[in-house]
Design brief:
23% of the residues lie in helices and 43% in strands. The protein has 630 residues and is of the alpha+beta class.
């Protein structure tokens, strides 16, 4: 069984047509060849022989005496017995609902779906499950999982994403399975929630317990069902327990056929095959009752009894994740058409929605008659539409240079910004590259570069950032994963080398980013204001994360910022009078920021932290600091 996964994968590249009887007989004869390559090819051929090859291979297995031949034929027969009943498996796995009881009381439910798929050209399965469990009177857990497995006898795992919501914790993990290791990655969560064992995610070699094929914990039920369809008297695998077991220790999981019996589940009677797993694998005693057409109809796991159910019973128990969001959206739409004193807040709430609300807002705009309501909904639609003024924005952000000066005219730094369309987490987004020079003092400029990726939505929702900088004579590269509730910082390089564990321990802290305001990072504030100006917004409230300051890296702060349109005016820019729209911002600390924005070129001038930021060209931005004095 040790080489089962690799052999199955090779066979799947063969043509699906069934072999003629002569071809099956020839392959069976080649299993006794003195040539190892011929024996390998014969096994692959038999595995591709389909249902027609099952009986000849089964009869050959009964007569075989050579141990290697018996091993190869055993693998072939196990596979062909399952493959010949693929339609039954597909029907059983397509969509299933389960009820979970403890001592006769309903304490949870599970919803599982699957579909045929491919992985790098190989046949595969995609599964998704949603589970809710009242583990104790005051401890309710909810988790969702998606995973991909190859369509081979061991259902070899490829990848999995697991997201859990438990009392006082919420996290998501991603697992990528290799031949001899698993890569565990934290997608969302706090340090203390990363793994139940408290270990940091990373790459872990599999700690194999024996010689069985590698299985995934979530696939164990499906594997027992396959064993039942193949009429196996016993079967065993090495399974990886993924959440509580980051060190990748594998346990042997063995089941034995315990007889056939009739069971009643949900008022229906099933003729089921019962399989028993004894304690000793870290999971305790488990039992499965399996029907040939419906798969598992009942099982007991850790004292819980899980029975096959239906959508009518379980469906009402599932939380409607979008209900609260829809209620807020409907309330905001009502508010924007309601009394005048509540329209500003309603408009701000609509700004925080994603593009899915665009169609409804357009419907409301088409039905509106009040001019103020139409103006507000028009702005909201422009904001939510990722294609609004896209050509103008691309021109603004393609190549922009800025220089900073204090009130006495001394050079305070420069910045070059370039943005282009990009894919971010499978969605439309922006890749923004910024190079900044800041003076530690007038003689020693400090330089750092920032690469940020944001979604292409109204708020340019931050996704991640990479920052390169010098600190105390050393070169650093850090990465920040940005989530609506968390910022995770990872040190990528120090002086051109990968860090050791101690070096990588940068500050990681909770940041309060919800508080009724959309959020962004400091580098994208001016771009958000440029979008707001094009859409003619009178107000924009934000939570702004500043992830790098003159104090160094590994620190960040979050400020509330409220920007208001402060009127149109003319400014002197490049020796010509230029009409601009002015936005004024008030910070939590009472400081004021001002931005002057032109429709064609975007930000031309700003005043931030007692510094004047001026749009310039490459020559003006890179002029030596000594030449910047008046």
């Amino acid at each position: 069984m040790a080489r089962l996964a690799g052999i199955a994968v090779l066979f799947l590249t063969l043509a699906a047509a069934a072999f003629a009887g002569e071809a099956v007989e020839k392959a069976l004869a080649d299993l006794d060849s003195d040539d190892f390559a011929k024996r390998e090819a014969a096994e692959r051929a038999l595995m591709g022989s389909g249902a027609e090859g099952y009986e000849p291979c089964r009869r050959a297995l009964e007569k075989a005496t050579d141990e290697e031949t018996k091993m190869r034929l055993g693998r072939v027969v196990e596979w062909l017995a399952i493959e010949s009943k693929t339609e039954a498996l597909e029907a059983a796995w397509r969509e299933r609902w389960f009820l979970t009881t403890l001592d006769g009381e309903v304490v949870g439910w599970e919803y599982v779906t699957s579909e045929r798929s491919t992985h790098k050209g190989r046949p595969a399965w995609k599964f998704a499950s949603e589970v809710s469990l009242q583990e104790a009177p005051d401890a309710k857990s909810h988790w969702t999982t998606t995973w991909t497995s190859l369509h081979d006898p061991a259902m070899t795992p490829i990848r999995c994403t697991f997201e859990a919501a438990r009392p006082h914790e919420k996290y998501a993990l991603r697992f990528t399975f290799g031949t001899d290791e698993v890569d565990v990655e934290l997608v969302k969560g706090r340090p203390q929630d990363r793994l139940d064992t408290g270990r940091k995610p990373g790459k872990f070699p599999f700690n194999r317990a024996g010689q069985g094929p590698l299985a995934f914990e979530l696939n164990l039920t499906a594997l027992v069902e396959r064993a039942s369809l193949a009429r196996l008297s016993q079967a065993s695998w090495e399974y990886y327990g993924f959440v509580t077991n980051p060190e990748a220790k594998c346990f042997t999981y063995a089941v034995a056929f315990a007889g056939e019996e009739e069971v009643e589940v949900g008022g229906r009677k099933f003729r089921a095959r019962r399989y028993l797993h004894e304690a000793g694998s870290g999971r305790g005693r488990e039992e499965y009752w399996i029907d040939d057409t419906r798969g598992v109809v009942r099982m007991t796991v850790e004292g819980f009894v899980i029975t096959l159910s239906d959508e009518k019973t379980v469906g009402p128990m599932r939380p409607d994740a979008g209900a609260a969001a829809r209620a807020r959206f409907e309330a905001a739409l009502e508010g924007i058409a309601g009394p005048a004193d509540g329209r500003d807040e309603a408009e701000q709430r609509l700004l925080q929605l994603d593009g899915k609300a665009l169609a409804k807002c357009r419907e409301a705009l088409a039905a509106a008659s009040d001019e103020d309501v139409k103006a507000r909904l028009g702005r909201v639609c422009a904001w939510l539409d990722p294609d609004f003024k896209l050509a103008e924005l691309e021109a603004m952000w393609k190549d922009a240079w800025y220089v900073a000066k204090d009130d006495e005219g001394f050079w305070g730094g420069s910045e070059h910004v370039a943005a282009r369309a990009s894919r971010v987490r499978g969605r439309q987004g922006w890749k923004v590259e910024s190079t900044v020079r800041l003076p530690e003092d007038p003689r020693i400029p400090k330089k750092f570069t920032i690469e940020s990726r944001t979604l292409r939505d109204g708020l340019m929702t931050p996704a991640d950032m990479k920052i390169s900088f010098k600190e105390r004579g050393r070169d650093f590269r850090i990465r920040l994963r940005l989530d609506p509730d968390w910022i995770e910082m990872t040190l990528l390089e120090i002086d051109g080398r990968k860090p050791v564990d101690d070096d990588a321990r940068l500050e990681l802290k909770e940041v309060a980013l919800s508080e009724g305001r959309p959020w962004t990072n400091a580098q994208d504030v001016s771009r958000l204001l440029e979008r707001a100006s094009l859409a003619r917004f009178p107000r924009l409230d934000l939570r702004v994360v500043e992830v790098l300051s003159r104090k160094g890296a590994g620190r960040f702060k979050v400020d509330a910022k409220s920007f208001r349109f402060a009127g149109e005016e003319e400014i002197d820019f490049g020796g010509a009078k230029t009409p601009v729209r002015k936005y004024a911002g008030v910070m939590e600390n009472g400081k004021r920021e001002e931005y002057w924005i032109e429709d064609a070129r975007g930000l031309l001038k700003a005043r931030i932290n007692d510094m004047n930021i001026l749009r310039t060209d490459k020559e003006g931005a890179n002029r030596p600091p000594d030449d910047e004095k008046k």
